[in-house]
Amino acid sequence: MCDDMPDFEDFDDEADDDDDDFPDFDDDWDRDSSGPTETIMDKHEAAEINDVAPSSLSHLIGQRGVIDQVRVALDAAQMDGKKFDHALLVGPPGMGKSALAAVIAQEMATDFHEVLGQSIKNAADLNTLLLSAKNKDVVHIDECHELSKEYQTALYLAVDKRKLIIQNGKTPMTLPLADFTLLLSTTDEYGLLQPCRDRMKLLLRFDFYSEPELVEVLRHRSKALRWSVDEVVFTEIPKRAKGTPRLALRLLQSARRCARAEGETTITLDHFHRACGLERIDNLGLGPTETKYLQILTNGATRLNVLASMLGLPSRTVSEVTEPFLVRAGLIIKDDQGRRQLTQFGFDHCGQNARPD
Ligand SMILES: Nc1ncnc2c1ncn2[C@@H]1O[C@H](COP(=O)(O)OP(=O)(O)O)[C@@H](O)[C@H]1O
Ligand SMILES: [Mg+2]
After folding, report:
1. Are 233 and 268 in contact (CB under 8 A)?
2. Which residues surround ligand 2, an ion (CB under 5 A)?
3. Cα of 139 to ligand 2 centre, how many Å?
4. SS3 breakdown of the chain: % helix, strand, coil, rounded to 5?
5. Measured in angstroms, how far is the CA atom of residue 98 from the centroid of ligand 2?
6. Which helix (H) or strand (E) holds 103?
7. C-alpha distance from residue 308 to each of 72, 199, 312, 317, 327 (Å)
8. Which residues of the chain carry a pLDDT beneath 50?
9. Is any atom of ligand 1 closer than 6 Å to the C-beta of 246?
10. Which of 80, 85, 89, 91 could make an SS bond with 95 (beta carbons 3.0 to 4.6 A apart)?
11. Model confidence pTM above 0.90
């Protein structure tokens, strides 16, 4: 926690009346110690959207199903004096999987050990992680589908047997492991070995957020950061955030950058529009790549590999990053031959009329 950060009590007095459904939680949000200094801005204000982070389950907005599952598991663990059950967190990027993993550790009042799957490059990396955890600690492997099959196997065997077998010269050495909680996060659950998935007692599946939920995410984050934001900005950002808190928060940060560049302290709709203009984000939240993708399709149905080469991107990136939102928004469809084409809505969005049948 940052010493020069003020208590939040005085700020609570200014709390909006319209968020009574949500607890007043500004007083205990996690604040990053790398927060701003008084010289650059108001001493109450934090500069980065991630200078604060949810630190309790009540700070997390939406995802009712997931939150209910976690609450029951926390209650059960606390009643039995046991660790939180192993869990698999599945969902698109930016949905709150890492935020929830950190909150579970905070709610359990245990240490939190977090690594990215791709950063485990050898057995020593994995062993160090597992040996560092104490009883009831939370070990979170983010992007766990990036963990090689070999280490996924080593991981579930180690967790199953609660021990590590280390090859020390010719004699294998057995080291006991603590009874910790393993949380695995992934955007691609089938990139995980089935036995690894089966070891996870809870399956927490995240879904896209509604616009009102994103409004709440933005409102509460601004309040915790002590950013002054015009109300209309809270309702406009979610229209371009693709149901994703990370995108909504990133847009808010961009709007704030525009406000600060003009020396302003309140983020207005003009600042937000200016940020969208600078980043070439359109009224549906589509960026330059997606806009170019749609433009290519105005010339007719196109195969993935052709689209990818015209965009200068790997096919996998196009199908896994660019296309999901375009499909979900109803802008494109894939035909029986796997060719991509614009829907009427897609044509309308590109400012063109659909060609007659
Ligand atoms: N339900 C939520 N309520 C409040 N903030 C959220 C919520 N979900 C995500 N966030 C915020 O959105 C950002 C992205 O979340 P993150 O946990 O990194 O996503 P993921 O791990 O799924 O990619 C973080 O700043 C996080 O605090
Ligand atoms: Mg994450």
Report:
1. yes
2. 97-98, 142
3. 13
4. 50, 15, 35
5. 4
6. helix 97-108
7. 45, 37, 6, 8, 16
8. 1-25, 35-40, 356-357
9. yes
10. 91
11. no
d(CA 227, CA 220): 10
C-beta 238 within 6 A of ligand 1: no
Per-residue DSSP letters for 222-235? HHHHT-EE-HHHHH
Query: How long a stretch of residues is the chain?
Result: 357
Spell out the residues 6+ positions from residue 4 whose beta carbon is closer than 8 angstroms to its own: 35, 37, 38, 43
In short, whether 94's Cβ falls inside 6 Å of ligand 1 is yes
Ligand 1 probe mutation, 49, 249, 253, most atoms within 8 A of CB: 249
Residue 136 Cβ contacting ligand 1 at under 6 Å:
no
DSSP string, 3-35: TTSPPSHHHHTT--GGGTTS---GGG-EE-TT-
- Residue located nearest, by CA, to atom 24 of ligand 1: 246
pLDDT digits (tens, 9 = 90+) for 157-202: 999 999 998 877 778 889 999 999 999 999 999 999 999 999 999 9
Cβ atoms of residues 166 and 172 within 8 Å = yes
| Residues 92-139: tens digit of each pLDDT | 999 999 999 999 999 999 999 999 999 999 999 999 999 999 999 999
**Dist. CA 184 → ligand 1 center (Å):** 16
CA distance 60 to 57: 6
Ligand 1, residue 93: give the atom nearest the CA: 23
Question: Contact at 8 Å (CB) between 186 and 144?
Answer: yes
Letter string b/e over residues 215-231, b meaning 16 or more CB atoms within 10 A of that residue's CB: bbbbbbbbbbbbbbbbe
54 lines ligand 1 (CB under 6 A): yes
Q: Measured in whole angstroms, how far is the alpha carbon of residue 193 from the centre of its chain?
A: 23
- Distance in Å, CA 172 to ligand 2 centroid: 35
C-alpha count within 13 angstroms, C-beta hemisphere, residue 314:
4
Query: Which residue's CA is the nearest one to ligand 1's atom 16?
Result: 96
Full set of structural domains in the chain with CATH: 9-59+209-279 (1.10.8.60), 64-205 (3.40.50.300), 288-349 (1.10.10.10)
